[in-house]
Specification:
The chain is an alpha+beta fold and about 160 residues long. Helices cover about 20% and strands about 35% of the residues. It has a seven-stranded antiparallel beta sheet with strand order 1-2-3-7-8-9-6, with no helix packed on it. The chain has a three-stranded antiparallel beta sheet with strand order 4-5-10, with no helix packed on it. A hairpin with a 5-residue loop joins β2 and β3.
Length: about 160
């Protein structure tokens, strides 16, 4: 529409035409950005990772799409790191921090934690070519506490439809 504002004969001065063109372009850009932000966490495919193939831990593989409809596959190697989120248009997120129970409370869960200072990859995001584009890493501290951080372009938020569960 913007080129037509300049091509069609009109009594509008050039400054008014520039304002109209800028308004049209910015409205289009903002709406596209909002669609991309709200649709990015939508999961189109969900697969369970077999505990036999995943170190006896139940994991999940989720496929999302970019704004240009490129597939991003995120493998969450430990589903306990997926927590409910407060972000609109998403159901789960990768945990920012985790606190495992003590070995007295739950010995199996306590074994998931690493030694203090050790880092472990919790999730990886792959592009459509199968290359890793991001990782979610936990750094273990004392008493089963862990702080997570992302590297690269990891998908952190997921909107999973109930039919996929």
């Amino acid at each position: 529409m913007t080129p037509f504002i300049f091509l069609v004969e009109s009594s509008l001065p050039i400054s008014a035409r520039i304002v109209l063109a800028t308004t049209a372009l910015s409205t289009s850009s903002i709406s596209t950005a909002l669609v991309g932000w709200s649709g990015a966490p939508y999961v189109v495919d969900l697969q369970k990772l077999s505990p036999a193939d995943n170190g006896n831990i139940e994991g999940i593989e989720m496929t999302t799409l970019t704004l240009t409809l490129q597939r991003l596959v995120t493998r969450v190697y430990d589903a306990d790191f997926l927590v409910d989120t407060k972000r609109p248009f998403a159901k789960w997120e990768l945990a920012q921090s985790v606190q495992l129970p003590s070995s007295k409370e739950d010995a199996l869960m306590a074994m998931k934690g690493g030694a203090p200072g050790e880092e472990e990859t919790i999730a990886e995001t792959f592009n459509s070519a199968g290359k890793i584009v991001g990782r979610w890493i936990v750094r273990w501290e004392n008493d089963g506490a862990g702080t997570c951080r992302g590297t690269g372009k990891v998908v952190r938020y997921f909107n999973v439809h109930e039919e996929l569960l």
